[in-house]
Input
Amino acid sequence: MGKINSGKQSYRVRKQWSFMVKYIMMILAISMIITSAANASEGSVEKVKFSTEDNSTSIFSKVYVDGFGVNSNGFKLILRTYERRMETSYQPFLADIEYILIEDGKQVYSKKVEQISLSAGVEGVIVLEHHGNVALEDGKNYDGLAKVYLYREGVPEYYLTARSNFIASNDAEITEVYGDSIGASATIKSKSMVPLDAKIVFSLKKGSTIVETREIDAPPIMSNDKEKTVNILWTNNLDEGTYMVSVILSARDLTVNYDKIFNVDNKAVPRALETINQSGSSGSSDYSVPGFTIILPILAIAALVLINNRRN
Output
């Protein structure tokens, strides 16, 4: 009797274990089905949203941001159109890039550049630059954004955003300096959308001696303006010799220097003609106006001809 009861209990235990194993396997199977369905759903969304067709081959149109920077001179965006791990380049496609500047939460500039061709480029990397057309304030903090839109069936759709911030500042360079016996000039080119607020100092040197120093305001130009030339005159005309004019462009957090050596060669200058006095006589007969003695007889003959014609 004891053996019969023991056999029944063993059977019940085996049956319970079998039921639990089947239950656990069913739960695992359901979980795997749900996971694969979710993955399939995500892949189809990406493929539908950003895909191109080349005969029977479907290739994803993707873009990666390899670098983004913005400063007082503008935006620089580096895009990559290939997958590093797979070493796969994607087909050329179009994109819109929207450039935005924000100051204290307020949008101060926005420009969308449309239908940019993103081809394979140089090793699959495309460098885009954009210079905004807005005056910035020196020392202010700005946020710069670049929004990328990829085209699907001829319509741009939002894809990603790159963001960076910067403090606006003056930036400029001296492209040319000229000097001679009567003065000097300097040509200034701005490299910032902050209106240039700077001083230009001209220092005239002969050897180790500073002959003269002049200071003027720099033109308030921005990077979207043409370069401008400023001029100064020396107090006195320079004597013969070798000189150097040193030009310094100075602003907050900006110092640019440009030196130029020039020679002054005062050649012999003919004496000026003496001024004819009120009586019509000159102080000297050694100098006369070239050709003046020939003109007088011609005028006299013309006057005589006119008088003779009137009498007739």
